[in-house]
Amino acid sequence: MNVHPELLPAIERFELPDELGFGDTLAPVMYRLDYADGAWGEGQLLPYADISIDPSAKVLHFAQVVFEGLKAYRGEHAQVKLFRPHMNAARFNRSCARMLMPELPESLFIEGVSAVSACVAPLVPGLPGQSLYLRPLMFGTQPSLGLAPSDRFTFLVIASPSDALITGALRVVVERGMTRASTGGTGNVKASGNYGASLHSSMAATDSGFNQPLWLDAREQKYIEELSAMNFFAVIGGELHTPGTGGTILPGVTRDSVIALAGDLGIPVREGRIAIDTLLQQIRSKQCTEAFACGTAAVIAPISVIGEKDGAMYELAEVSGPVANRLRDELLDIQEGRAPDRFNWLYTAGM
User: Fold this and answer.
1) Which of 17, 128, 250, 256 gets the highest tally of CB atoms within 10 A of its CB?
2) Which long-range contacts (CB under 8 A, 24 or more apart) does 45-53 make?
3) pLDDT, tens digit, for every residue of 29-42?
4) pLDDT band at residue 246 using 50, 70 and 90 as cut-offs
């Protein structure tokens, strides 16, 4: 791995702002790796800067781009701990395969996220809820307007010292018109187009006083899938329910961690179809006591109300209820180093 000579001065000049926000403050370092002639080159640690791209690059015309999101936390003795990076690496390659992009060896994915994290260790915030958010991405750079996959690619890792994305409860609205993903599509991978296609409903939700839409299945518009950037859970009759991933729902790293923690804590977990109309009735009858969303950026965010576009509102009996609170505390205690890493989820960053 090559290290740019101006990298250290760029880090030394950088100052964290008083207010971080989420994803707004970009670390002064990035990792770059290029693919051409059927092979990956050598990774480079560079000062964060603009990149040059041909106007006819495939990514700009055919959305041949995938990404990941993961976090690193300040550990003891100036160490930085990445949370489950190997799971992100595996999902990244599933996304690449779906989008006809070359496999990135796990060792190179880990090299990129680990090197960036270690390099900016002094800039990793350490207050509860804060982290270094990492965004690995790959995109096609071949200049051509023909409808065909690119044969050249760039892999980047950028990072953002960030506060928690969500600090309060979510208000979500059922999306019964548009759909996020359909069987045979790209809903189960992190293709960037998935998120672009969700923006219309997401903005309509915020304009109506909600935080995010709750997406339903494309075929019948009956069954809950996920939120625009988070997986969905509900506590029904004392059991934890979540939609099965199938082929349309992104298998979230935080989702997997929540399921593992719940099992370890003796909380029954049911993965399967959740009919939206049945759930709304269960909220009214208080059989469903809690609902929450989870994802890398938000960790675990309680849901206070599920609304309909006709004005109907279904308020959860317990907002920040005992199940969501316990799972969130357990997860954050592991991530932030207050509890033993009994699942071996943390990886020490290094160059």
Assistant:
1) 250
2) 45/1, 45/2, 45/3, 45/4, 45/7, 45/115, 45/116, 45/119, 45/351, 46/4, 46/7, 47/4, 47/6, 47/7, 47/10, 48/10, 48/158, 51/154, 51/156, 53/141
3) 999 999 999 999 99
4) confident
